Protein 1
Amino acid sequence: MRSVAVGVSLLALSSMVLVGCGKSGSSGQAAACQPAKGDQLVVLTDDKHLQTVDNIIPAIYRPAATPVLIRAVDKVSGALTTSKLIALNKQVDLERKTATTVADGFVSDNGLTGGLTGGSGAIQVGAANFSESQILANVYAKVLTAAGFNATVRSVGNRELYLKSLSKGEIDVIPEYAGTLTEFLNKQQNGPSPAPRASSDLAATVTALTALGAKANLVFGAPSQAADQNAFAVTKAYADANGLRTLSDLASKCNGGELILGGPPECPQRPFCQAGLEQVYGIKFTGFQSLDSGGPLTKTAIKEGKVEIGLVFSSDGSLTG
């Protein structure tokens, strides 16, 4: 996802002021969940699949997509999980290690350089303008180098810029996000308001992406298990105190008391943010606080108990993986 997610859902973060857990009062409503401030955030599982999938997937310039290159980047996809991605982002965003150092450690720890041969020639790996993309681009480059390519990383800005470069072969491969890229290409090719092609079904989304990518001179490697989606987070203390693991838990245990959602200004009207939470899960919010999109304002508000739940990105390094 990252940069600006087109066609992908928004999330909400929760902090510690929620309403009672588990027991119903005489009115039949749940008693208020116990508030619990804390420094650790956890994502509540989207068990009814409100959000569109956004698994990391290698996007490749078609003429560069040799079997050797695809095997190399698919080996990376096979090693990536969301919990590992959170750990990688934590090292760069919180511990201030370089993307190159973190990529080195991931490649070594997961044995990604073994058994890869047959590559040759120069390969340019694109890295978008945020740390997660830079980490993954360096991982791709190290594995491609082990396969025999002369792989280098090139910073390429945002999606609007780098997709043009990728389609022309100015870069050869870049880590992308299945749902976001599907809807970006869908709008690019089919107008500003086409029927959505991305969904909560990964296989169906990748099938749609493959067809759209063919028109842009792109092919794709295997999607990883790791996803960077919009998500809804609460403090770990709040989740533990109230027995919350899923968004359905929040709806069943915490409706009936104070429940404030934090997120970007557009969240209340978005079908994948407040409007979707209310419709799909039946969550009854008592207020909304306009903050940012998965950024420090929202995360701080959750930790300090100013909101109960808020919008985050599922691979954020500050989350408990």
Protein 2
Amino acid sequence: MWCLYALSQAPEIQTKLRDELLTLETDTPTMDELNSLPYLDNVVRETLRIHSPVASTMRVAMKDDV
């Protein structure tokens, strides 16, 4: 959801990503084919950096640490 929102806010990035995706010769790419797309990887990583899937974690010590 966040990736699609971010792409809707940046049409030049959306166009560049679309151009890279259209280089694939199939409508059902394999994971190896998707992994070979550097711009797609950058878009996904940047989206996860900005919109973290886990906002925070709550940790509780089970025993005192000295």
Protein 3
Amino acid sequence: YTSHQIPRFKKWMQTKRYSDSTVVTYCSLVVFFCKYLVKRNCTELSPMMVSRFNYEFIVFPQKSIYYQNQAINAIKQYFEYCGVELEIGEIERPKKEKKLPVILSMDEVQRIISCAYNLRHKTLLSLIYSGGFRLSEALHLKLADIDSDRMLIHIKAAKGRKDRYTLLSQKALAILREYYRVYTPKVYLFEAANGKNYSPRAVQNVVKNAVTRAGIAKKITPHSLRHSFATHLLENGTDIRYIQNLLGHSSPKTTMIYTHVSEMAVQKIRNPFDMIETLDHNPFHNNKI
């Protein structure tokens, strides 16, 4: 469990086809864990050492539940790579917080796209929303993935290493054609100056700046456009099974979260206060004195 094994651990995860972001995250967490072991002069791995690390550097500093689960997963993978049989499953792992996603109205989506700095940014945001893309999926799109004959977009090797198709909007296609004439991308649809695809951080900044210019106070990320796409489909009567396929969810339970944020379902509920007969403002109206 020495730090010189980290490059080999990285290659091991790459051969198991973990995503680039997972490899980077797990390696950094394992380096952190190894430094902790050295600092504690640990000569033998034990569940107790993992438990202490979990408390001292995650629970006590009040790191997020997501970070905690990532750290434990990274350590488990590192043990597997090292061939160390150590049961750390008994470490208490909190359940993830069930937060509802932030949803934009269609008007807010239009305002954000209109406030994009240039045509490239406008095209990128239009595509993420109209196809319900995860950020990594949009950034890995290639010219050949756009099927304008069938009005579909082919998403390859997405989360879970699965392919799927999503919708190609007529309006998005018109913007794409204009974008292609101006920027003439070669391989990736959205290329940086060095010819490689855009970085996630660059797109996050694009969204942040557009939201600010649009005067929207909600906490919006690129993923908010994907959430909004799914919710708007549901509100317009699209069967949730089709939405599940378009988003690439392996379980319908994941897609069901949009039923909790859809205005369509909420607006159909009749408020019981409205069922009460008209209230008389004079409390003595029916009293005989």
Protein 4
Amino acid sequence: HYFHEIVVRLPKPAKTILKKLSNHGIYGGYDLQNDYPELDNCILLCATETKTNEDIQNFKKQLAAVLTEN
């Protein structure tokens, strides 16, 4: 079993991006600014053995889509 976490800094407010992802049925991570104000626009992502390559590719596609929305 594997457990991986990564922090990603987004070019837009994390809260906005996470809300848009949730509209697509995706829990897109944790907004780190809630606990660490200096990490604004940063999210903590986690992928475990429960996520397939298809899940990760779908997340990548949806994240790219919401980042390019106006």
